[in-house]
């Protein structure tokens, strides 16, 4: 069962916290000594977690929609996600591009507020105080990692600044952003607990910090593509591998044999889940909207969920569907090949239904009670295989064993001599709709090759542009560029 106490606190904060989205770059002048004691700081830390509420949605639009898993083109071409799908060069004003930037910096501001304000007087128990600091640093690292993967260079705000002060802080090199991320995560590893009592399940653990740190090393080890993006060609696959092995050997997690059970509404916090984002339904204000954003409005209307919302098309690519071998149980669980609308008309447009259970619908299409799996155990296993393949570190036989473990759960036969392309294909099938495909292609050096082969085959409406290396990251949002002339330069390749 979901932890009601922790989620209930988040729900209150989601309703009451004001996100200073009109202030660019994002910052805020402290808390005016609002936080006085341990309880106040527990609420403040929970407020940082509450910033994650839109993370699943924005990852879908900025990652899954960007990849070869979706072909999101409508007849009218007016949806914001279509320009992302199409590799449009004028997306600096796109609402999703700016919303994720704003939200990440809101989370960073909240983390910095805790880190700046917490003291021995306010939180006398050193263990509790150190745990709160570690949570704030884990989440700050989480937000900065999201930023660096999406935008490349970003301004480093490592404590609370006034709006005037932020106008003198330019974007830092990617390597310096990673330095802060790694420093924060190393401290989180040391000071976060391995687990929590039941009333606090859902908070970041030391295992979650190790998992995220391993992904950070894996990502910055990837190729640079000649841009100032997330890859630094640092060759730290051994560091990533050591962290993944630690989690596999010593962690309290496990491989769930039943694939659909990983995502069941009545099976949250199962052994697969290393870190998730907590949601609860029932009119609390903390329900999730991400389960329904991948499905057509007509499907929801036909099933008495939600309300009309105009044209909506986020079609699963034919290439992804064809990538599932006969007998793979994941295809039917992940994808619905069409639906019958309220007029008894069948719409043969495939879409993701991985996170939808119509029997669990809340008050509307924005109110689902399913936690969002950010890092799960299968991801750790597969990233271990990736570290071995990319870094020539570890035992290559382990790669085959990992891939075959995943394939067996999917109902598929074993394979041998797994190479990078076979690995990426299996990872794609496993994590469809979990917004991991784009990042996998980027960090393994395959994104240009794969996407530019896929676009001409899939783009039946001739809307998409071929991509170049500049489109591996997004533009800096235009409202950030205009806040002060010369403070930020736009990422190359964007208008």
From TrEMBL:
This is RagB/SusD family nutrient uptake outer membrane protein. It comes from Christiangramia fulva. Its main location: membrane. Keywords: Cell outer membrane, Membrane, Signal. Residues 349-494 form the RagB/SusD domain. It is found in: Cell outer membrane. Residues 90-218 form the SusD-like N-terminal domain. Belongs to the SusD family. It comes from the Bacteria. GO terms for cellular component: cell outer membrane.
């Amino acid at each position: 069962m979901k932890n009601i106490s922790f989620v209930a606190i988040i729900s209150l904060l989601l309703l009451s916290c004001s996100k200073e989205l009109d202030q660019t770059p994002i910052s805020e002048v402290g808390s005016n000594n609002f936080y006085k004691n341990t309880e106040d700081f527990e609420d403040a830390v929970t407020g940082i977690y509450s910033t994650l509420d839109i993370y699943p949605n924005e990852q879908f639009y900025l990652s899954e929609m960007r990849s070869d898993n979706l072909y999101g083109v409508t007849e009218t071409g007016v949806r914001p996600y279509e320009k992302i799908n199409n590799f449009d060069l004028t997306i600096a004003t796109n609402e999703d591009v700016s919303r994720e930037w704003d939200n990440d910096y809101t989370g960073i501001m909240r983390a910095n507020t805790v880190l700046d304000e917490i003291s021995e007087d306010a939180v006398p128990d050193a263990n509790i105080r150190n745990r709160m600091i570690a949570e704030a640093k884990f989440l700050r690292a989480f937000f900065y990692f999201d930023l660096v993967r999406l935008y490349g260079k970003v301004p480093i705000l490592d404590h609370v600044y006034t709006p005037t002060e932020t106008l003198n802080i330019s974007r830092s090199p990617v390597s310096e952003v990673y330095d802060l991320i790694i420093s924060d995560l190393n401290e989180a590893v040391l000071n976060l607990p391995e687990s929590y009592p039941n009333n606090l399940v859902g908070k970041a653990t030391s295992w979650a910090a190790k998992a995220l740190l391993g992904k950070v090393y894996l990502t910055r080890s990837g190729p640079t593509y000649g841009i100032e993006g997330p890859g630094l060609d640092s060759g730290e696959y051994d560091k990533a591998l050591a962290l993944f092995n630690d989690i596999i050997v010593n962690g309290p997690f496990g491989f769930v044999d039943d694939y659909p059970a990983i995502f069941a509404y009545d099976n949250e916090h199962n052994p697969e889940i290393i870190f998730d984002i907590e949601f609860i339904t029932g009119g609390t204000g903390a329900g999730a909207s991400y389960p329904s954003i991948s499905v057509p409005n007509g499907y929801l209307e036909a099933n008495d969920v939600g309300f009309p919302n105009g044209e909506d098309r986020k079609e699963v690519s034919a290439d992804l569907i064809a990538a599932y071998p006969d007998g793979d149980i994941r295809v039917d669980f992940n994808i619905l090949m069409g639906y019958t609308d309220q007029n008894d008309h069948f719409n043969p447009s495939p879409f993701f239904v991985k996170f939808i259970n119509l029997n669990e619908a809340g008050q509307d299409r924005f109110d689902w009670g399913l936690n969002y799996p950010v890092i799960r155990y299968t991801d750790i296993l597969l990233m271990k295989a990736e570290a071995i393949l990319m870094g020539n570190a570890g035992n290559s036989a382990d790669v085959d064993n990992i891939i075959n473990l995943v394939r067996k759960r999917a109902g598929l036969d074993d394979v041998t001599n797994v190479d990078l392309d076979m690995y990426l294909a299996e990872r794609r099938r496993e994590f469809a709709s979990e917004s991991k495909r784009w990042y996998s292609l980027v960090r393994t050096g395959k994104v240009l090759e794969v996407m530019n082969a896929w676009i001409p085959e899939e783009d039946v409406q001739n809307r998409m542009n071929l991509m170049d290396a500049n489109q591996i990251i997004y533009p800096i949002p235009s409202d950030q560029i205009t806040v002060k002339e010369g403070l930020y330069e736009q990422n190359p390749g964007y208008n």
